[in-house]
Amino acid sequence: MKNVPVFIFPVSLEFYLNARHTHKQLLTVYNPYDFSVNFKVLCTSPNKFTVIDPEGVIAPQSCIDIVVRYTQPSASHCNTTEKFRITMFDRNTQQTLGKRDIPTKLIEGEPSNTNLGECLGDSFHPLSTKAAPIRPVEEHTRFICNHPSHRDQQPINVVAVAVSICCIAALLLPTQPEPVVKSQWPEWLHIGSNLKLVFSFVLGLVSMLVLRP
Questions:
Q1: How many CB atoms lie within 10 A of CB 144?
Q2: d(C-alpha 27, C-alpha 20), whole Å
Q3: Where in this chain does the record put each MSP domain (predicted)?
C-alpha cells in the first residue's frame, strides 16, 4: 500500500513558560479513509513531555484527541524546537502508511494578542465594523405604499374571459326538450340539459381562475 497523507491539527504546538494553562494541549489526528488505522506517537525529548494514550486505533472517517503535557518547563528549555512524530500503520500488516512531524517550542513569557497579528503577516489588517444606515420611517413607508401589488402585475387572461362569454351564451340558449313554439332561434341552436351542465361546470372553473386573489 502506498503512503497516505496524515492529517493533524494543529500543525505546531507552542507552550509558554509563565502560562500554566498552555502546558496542556491537544493534538487531533484525523482518519478520513474507509479503513481503520493504528497510530503511534514518538518524541525527540520524551523526558520533557507526557502523552496520554500514545498508541491506539482510529476508526474509519473519525478522529482522536491526544493530550500532550509539558512536564518540565524551565527557562533553559525555551526557544528549543522539539518534534512529535505521529505515524499511521495498517492494522493487518503493520506496514507504515504515513507520518507527520509536529514542531513544538517553549516560549518565554505569556501569550499576547500581538501574536495573532504576527501570524497573519504585515499585509493583513483588521476590518472596521460599521453599523448599517437606518432608513427614515417616512421613506420606508413611501416605498411600501408605492410597491405594486401582485394582483396588479398579473395580466388579464383573455382566453379565460372568452371562454366565460361562450359558456354564458350557451346557457342562454333554449333547452332541447322544451317545445319549440315559433322560436326565433334555429333548431340547431337548441342544446340538451346535459350539455348545459357541462357549460355550467366550465364556467365555474373559469370564474375561479379569473377571480382568484
A1: 8
A2: 18
A3: 8-89
With vertex at residue 50, the alpha carbon angle to CA 46 and CA 56, rounded to the nearest 5 degrees, is 95
Give me the count of residues in the chain. Answer: 213
Helix H or strand E encompassing 107: strand 96-107
- Per-residue pLDDT band for 54 (boundaries 50, 70, 90) equals very high
Which DSSP letter does residue 191 get? Answer: B
- Say which DSSP state 88 is in: E
The 3-state DSSP class for residue 29 equals: strand
Q: How far apart are CA 195 and CA 65, in angstroms?
A: 80
Structure-derived torsion over alpha carbons of residues 142, 146, 150, 152, reported in degrees to the nearest 10: 150
Give residue 144's pLDDT: 47
Q: What is the value of pTM for the model shown?
A: 0.51
Read off the pLDDT of residues 80-127 as tens digits, 9 standing for 90 and up: 899 999 999 998 888 999 999 999 999 988 887 555 444 444 555 666
Least confidently predicted of 29-43, 126-140, 191-205:
126-140
